[in-house]
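Re: beginner question about structure tokens

> Can someone show what the tokenized structure looks like for a real chain? I only ever see the sequence side.

Sure, here's an example I had lying around. Input first:
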Amino acid sequence: MKFFFDLFPVILFFVAFKFGGIFVATGVAIAATFAQIGWVWFKHRKVDNMLWVSLGIITVFGGMTLILHDETFIKWKPTVLYWAFAAALIFGMLFFKKNLIRTLLAEQMTLPEAVWNQLNWSWAGFFIFMGFANLAVAFAFNLSTDDWVNFKLFGGVGLMLVFVIIQGLVLSKYIEEEK
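And the corresponding structure tokens:
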């Protein structure tokens, strides 16, 4: 359920784009992200840092898209977000000696330190890859904005799902069954 909740702004962006175009979709994505944070705050009285980062990036890049009436900015938004996540994972490890993936998942599983580090680096690499994939679809392959929006929802979610399944398969050998 959390997976769909996290996708809420992207799904609304997709639907709004299909009915109203890129600028309506951008406004809807900004509003949906504000609503998402409001809901999380109302339910838990705490909002994850990643959600705040996402709000900041959608507000800045979406706002520039709307003010300048230029869809280039909203097309950069996923890349900036992916690379911000990758930078947080990398800088956390290198400069603060903190494994953010471990911080997020330690309550759900117990893994050897080397595996936690591998997991952190693999997520950082995945986010870097996703940033480049977004730029390629948005700008390098000469595809339409409609193609980019479809990739944003279906390609991005599909790649994330495949990556999570691969991670699950790799980690499955470390998960012990309860007796």
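Each token stands for a local structural state, so reading them left to right follows the chain. The mean pLDDT is 93.
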